[in-house]
Amino acid sequence: GFDLLDANMMSLVLSLRVAYEECDKKPTSWPSCVRKDILKDNVSVVARNVGQVLASCPVTDVVPPVLEDFRRWWLKPHKGRDPIALQEQIWPALEEGLFPEGQAAPSMAQALRGLAELARCLSQSESEQAAALLVGLFQKLGKAWEQLFWCVASKHSP
Questions:
Q1: pLDDT, tens digit, 9 for 90 and up, residues 81-133
Q2: Of 88, 92, 45, 101, which is closest to residue 70 (Cα–Cα)?
Q3: How many of the other CB atoms lie within 10 Å of CB of 10?
């Protein structure tokens, strides 16, 4: 399943799915994992994996392309896939991936950076749904904001 895919494979599947959806004439020779929107049925696993990738990416490294590919797929309504409705599954899973229990300080810093990159990614989107999803980011990610406010209040750098 999707929980076994690494960041590069996840990025590839997401990118190919968006390309497939944008095709006027759908190619039938493409793999079934691209032709069928299996991402929608596994959105919690995909979001958790994206969170884990961001939390494991050193602060000094370039943001993995899976974030942008995930954003492109998420914000593209397609045959009943509603980006706003999906956030109810995505935010909790993404937060679980970004901020697991017992997280070490370096990983927390990486996760907070990933959260900032996600906010940046959404804010730069031209999609009509992006503004509503940014509101969701601030309303639904309670653990993330607790971590950030703890760091600020205690003057600890993660």
A1: 899 999 999 999 999 998 888 877 777 888 888 888 989 998 988 888 888 88
A2: 45
A3: 22
User: What is the Cα–Cα distance from 88 to 93, expressed in whole angstroms?
Assistant: 9
CB atoms within 10 A of CB 77: 16
Interhelix angle 142-153/105-123, nearest 10 degrees? 120
Beta-bridge partners for 56: none
* 20-78 confidence digits (pLDDT tens): 888 878 778 888 878 887 777 888 999 999 999 998 888 888 888 899 999 998 988 88
Q: Break the chain down into helix, strand, coil percent, rounded to 5.
A: 70, 0, 30
